[in-house]
Automatic annotation (TrEMBL), chain A:
<feature type="transmembrane region" description="Helical">
    <location>
        <begin position="43"/>
        <end position="62"/>
    </location>
</feature>
<keyword id="KW-1133">Transmembrane helix</keyword>
<feature type="transmembrane region" description="Helical">
    <location>
        <begin position="121"/>
        <end position="144"/>
    </location>
</feature>
<dbReference type="InterPro" id="IPR009936">
    <property type="entry name" value="DUF1468"/>
</dbReference>
<keyword id="KW-0472">Membrane</keyword>
<keyword id="KW-0812">Transmembrane</keyword>
<feature type="transmembrane region" description="Helical">
    <location>
        <begin position="12"/>
        <end position="31"/>
    </location>
</feature>
<protein>
    <submittedName>
        <fullName>Tricarboxylate transport protein TctB</fullName>
    </submittedName>
</protein>
<feature type="transmembrane region" description="Helical">
    <location>
        <begin position="74"/>
        <end position="91"/>
    </location>
</feature>
Automatic annotation (TrEMBL), chain B:
<dbReference type="InterPro" id="IPR002823">
    <property type="entry name" value="DUF112_TM"/>
</dbReference>
<feature type="transmembrane region" description="Helical">
    <location>
        <begin position="139"/>
        <end position="163"/>
    </location>
</feature>
<keyword id="KW-1133">Transmembrane helix</keyword>
<protein>
    <submittedName>
        <fullName>Uncharacterized 52.8 kDa protein in TAR-I ttuC' 3'region</fullName>
    </submittedName>
</protein>
<feature type="transmembrane region" description="Helical">
    <location>
        <begin position="470"/>
        <end position="490"/>
    </location>
</feature>
<dbReference type="Pfam" id="PF01970">
    <property type="entry name" value="TctA"/>
</dbReference>
<feature type="transmembrane region" description="Helical">
    <location>
        <begin position="201"/>
        <end position="221"/>
    </location>
</feature>
<feature type="transmembrane region" description="Helical">
    <location>
        <begin position="355"/>
        <end position="381"/>
    </location>
</feature>
<feature type="transmembrane region" description="Helical">
    <location>
        <begin position="324"/>
        <end position="343"/>
    </location>
</feature>
């Protein structure tokens, strides 16, 4: 008999689906389930969540029996700088205002690549901010405050 | 002739100066982003989707969106031919022989053949959509809640069957998509569901945020895994005009590709991708010298490109008539319609004839614009390919952030982008296709609504789904598709990536 092994890719995959299924199932139980005739808000999601857990279990069984492709290289640096960019924009677009916020958002995303040099990133972000001002703020007239209340008042803009 | 009247209405809608303008902008933007290496049509559309909401008129906005779609597809083919980096699997087939043609110094001819093939296929399939959409709409109007439920099951099951890799994973992705789709307020009782107490998610997760995250952000992360130097060996493209010999060789493959593509495109679940592969296989099999394939065969570019485009077009048929998306792009279209306040389904044709026929007519106009514009602009697209990737993604991230925020000015949508970017990337790493998830996400609320309505109408008797003949027929199809993909022979072929332990 072979030693017990579990395939990493499918193992994580199964765990993720079971976890998500469990989350939705637990949340559904707090809702009114109802009957098949008059389904409550929890009925359909509970059924789906149970199906998701079952599918996760099948993947888990496959993970124990078969080997699949390895996960491969993971873009850690990319995740570290790309994912915070929209979050930062969300946190600051009202406080700092549209233009400073988009400048910093682009600057953060710039560092996702090891090849980006700081000066290039600054110039790129500045150019992008100018473009965003001209196209989104000026031409399309999106109703975003250009500079927000966190900044000292800015004359003539 | 009703067909001609309808087409006339469509063309008069689509050729208004504003709509022509939006179509043009859509085609240009679509090509611009689509040509960027590693970014496929779906990601392009997801990223550009918010821009179309800035237009107040739903017709213009959907026409622009359709333009973006054709542009993105053509842009993808350009990248595939010039640097052998296909954005998604449908242009992966074009890359095989297209890139070889480019290496032999015939990049111009390959691009022209792709454009001509796409245009021909686009013209034929636009007519097919115009002919087949009204009768299908008439059938669909007879549908009750039970039939809709069963039809959506067919759509979801087919998307599973046509996804790459494990069927179980694809099924799980559909179910997860359905669950994510019903986050928000329950329509019957007004109870908030799965919102984690966040009031900003009471209207459900923003579709654009999910699409941008799962397709756009996840794709950027994937491209950041290996930052290798791209070699653009073709800096100038000359000799655009195909030779007389090329024309002779491409005619038959284009016609065959169009037929294959039109037929497969209607299938729910990504027929266009299948169409390109099917066409390539057919051309290789019937060719007198199959040895040329893979070394720059004209047929290997002309056939799949036509099939691809025809399939892209006919996939509008289930979307426009039934409100059922055939692929992720159509799911995006449906999402866009819902945001514009249009309920997708058979009523669109009768209630909004200008919208319905305007979109159909704009398909043809979009294709015409592509062929007129893109051949002269090819030099510009080649220049774009030389822009390093690390410069592109800060730009893309900034525009995505602005775009998503501009839809509802809800900052929680931006957090959703980050979350779904992470989830999408994680799932891609775990070999789960994102397409079924997006289909599930769009169909989730509709599926639940129709299920609940059907059960109330049948007084809680679940046999209603099998005693109503149309519904029973549809469920039978869904079951048959599932059985076929689980058949040992088919399953083995689909899952050859698994290495069995002895």
């Amino acid at each position: 008999m072979k030693p017990f092994t579990i395939d990493t890719t499918n193992g994580i995959c199964a765990a993720l689906f079971i976890f998500l299924g469990g989350f939705f199932a637990l949340q559904s139980l707090d809702l009114e389930i109802g009957t098949a005739f008059r389904m409550g808000p929890g009925y359909f999601p509970l059924v789906l969540a149970i199906v998701l857990i079952l599918l996760g279990a099948i993947i888990l069984v496959e993970a124990v029996r078969f080997e699949s492709e390895p996960i491969g290289h993971v873009a850690w640096r990319g995740m570290l700088f790309i994912l915070p960019a929209p979050i930062f924009f969300g946190l600051t677009v009202r406080g700092l205002g549209f233009l400073p916020s988009i400048f910093l958002t682009a600057l953060i995303a710039s560092f996702a690549s090891g090849r980006m040099r700081p000066l290039t990133a600054l110039v790129l972000s500045a150019g992008l901010t100018l473009f965003a001002f001209l196209v989104f703020s000026y031409a399309l007239g999106l109703p975003f405050r250009r500079f927000g209340p966190w900044l000292p008042s800015w004359p003539a803009l | 002739m009703e067909l001609l009247d309808n087409l006339a209405l469509g063309f008069s809608t689509a050729t208004s100066l504003a709509n022509l303008g939006f179509c043009l902008i859509g085609v240009l933007l679509g090509t611009l982003i689509g040509v960027l290496p590693g970014i496929g049509a779906t990601a392009t559309i997801a990223m550009l989707l918010p821009i179309t909401f800035q237009i107040g008129d739903p017709v213009s906005s959907l026409i622009m969106l359709a333009g973006i779609y054709y542009g993105a597809q053509y842009g993808g083919s350009t990248t595939a031919i010039l640097i052998n980096m296909p954005g998604e699997s449908s242009s992966a087939v074009t890359a095989i022989d297209g890139y070889q043609m480019a290496k032999n110094g015939r990049a111009g001819a390959a691009l022209a053949i792709a454009a001509i093939g796409s245009f021909f296929a686009g013209t034929v399939s636009t007519f097919l959509v115009a002919i087949f959409a009204p009768p299908l709409t008439a059938i669909a109007l007879q549908f009750g809640a039970a039939e809709y439920f069963s039809l959506m099951i067919v759509g979801l099951v087919s998307s599973v069957a046509l996804a790459h890799g494990s069927i179980v994973k694809a099924l799980a992705m559909v179910v997860l998509g359905l669950l994510l789709g019903i986050v928000g307020t329950d329509i019957y009782t007004g109870t908030p569901r799965f919102t984690l107490g966040i009031r900003e998610y009471a209207d459900g997760l923003n579709f654009v945020a999910v699409a941008v995250g799962v397709f756009g952000v996840a794709e950027i992360l994937r491209n950041l895994e290996n930052e290798h130097e791209r070699s653009v060996m073709i800096r100038r493209v000359s000799g655009l005009m195909p030779t007389r010999e090329d024309f002779r060789r491409m005619a038959a493959p284009i016609v065959r590709g169009t037929i294959i593509g039109s037929a497969l495109g209607i299938l729910p679940g990504g027929g266009a991708i299948l169409a390109a592969f099917a066409s390539y296989t057919v051309e290789k099999r019937i060719s007198k010298n199959p040895g040329e394939f893979g070394k720059g065969a004209v047929e290997g570019v002309a056939g799949p490109e036509s099939a691809n485009n025809a399939g892209a077009q006919t996939s509008f048929i289930p979307m426009l008539t039934l409100g059922i998306p055939a692929n992720p792009v159509m799911a995006l279209m449906i999402g866009a319609m819902i945001i514009q306040g249009i309920v997708p389904g058979p009523n669109v044709a009768t209630e909004q004839p200008a919208l319905f026929w305007g979109i159909i007519a704009s398909m043809w106009i979009g294709n015409l614009m592509l062929i007129i514009l893109n051949l002269p602009l090819i030099g510009l697209w080649v220049k774009l390919l030389t822009i390093p990737y690390y410069v592109l993604f800060p730009i893309i991230m900034a525009f995505c952030s602005i775009g998503v925020y501009s839809v509802n000015t809800n900052i929680y949508d931006l957090y959703a982008v980050a979350f779904f970017g992470l989830l999408g990337y994680l799932l891609t790493k775990l070999r789960c296709e994102p397409a079924p998830l997006l289909l599930g996400f769009v169909l989730g609320p509709l599926l639940e609504e129709n299920l609940r309505r059907a059960m109330i109408l049948a007084r809680g008797d679940p046999t209603t789904f099998v005693t109503r003949p149309i519904s029973a027929g549809l469920l039978f199809i869904a079951l048959a598709v599932l059985v076929i993909v689980f058949l040992p022979a088919v399953k083995k072929k689909r899952e050859e990536v698994f290495v069995e332990e002895n």
